[in-house]
Fold this sequence. Notes:
This protein is mainly α. It has a single domain, classed as Fido-like domain (Fic-like fold). It is 66% helix and 0% strand. The longest helix has 22 residues, at 225-246. It is globular and about 60 Å long. Mean pLDDT is 92; it is low at 261-268.
Amino acid sequence: MENETYMKRLKDRLQIEFKKQDRSGVYGFTQRSMAYNSNRIEGSTLTEKQTASMFETGTLYADDPDMIFRTKDIEEMNGHFKMFNYVMKCMKDPLSEDIIKNMHKNLKEGVFEDRANGYAIGEWKKRANRVSDIQIALPQEVPEKIHQLLEKYHNAEKITLYDIAKFHAQFENIHPFQDGNGRVGRMIILKQCLDHNIVPVIIRDIHKAEYNRYLNKAQHEQDYKGLEAYFEKEQKYYQESTIPMIFDFDELFDLLVKTKFQISLLYMKDHGMT
């Protein structure tokens, strides 16, 4: 299947289902997948089943009666749902500083702990912070570094998956917010993919170690090929998972027949049969 055909249908279905708040199709799948995995990568204790319950019914059940939920996990899960919906609303708008700040605002404005700590919400960080062994930007450096990052991005002749991987590594290296940088950064990936008709990348928690390894290599050595290759693997999973959600059975059958016919023609041509 050609990516152009797939992406047009995907974007159409995401918008239709988002506007109707139809949570049974690709919109619901993408919402739940992103919210669960991105929060889980950052230490959330909520399960996929609990994430789905919160998204679909607004309720939260404990499989274990002795289970205790962290309030912050619940607040950030709801915030992630809001951030995703915000991206659906501004799908046709180019990525900008305001959009990035509003992503963060939607994610974090309902998190009590962040407000109690005096964190800037929907604004660049006001205090210096540290992340493992990488040198991140100081608060006074953030506006210019983000401006330069976006300027290079928008001046590119054509955006590829490699460019998105590079942007992600550099964004995380700047670390413009007090908290929530990873989740905002991964949401930016989704928006960039949709903006440029590239199959979306959803980074799954089961591959957290691999993701972090390639991200670290990109940040330390400016080698983005490994991160790009990892993104390609996640693209394949997302596309294979969503094709049945956005095409009718008859359409899939016709596409399969067409694809097999094209492969047969290529085989015949390669073997001098035409």
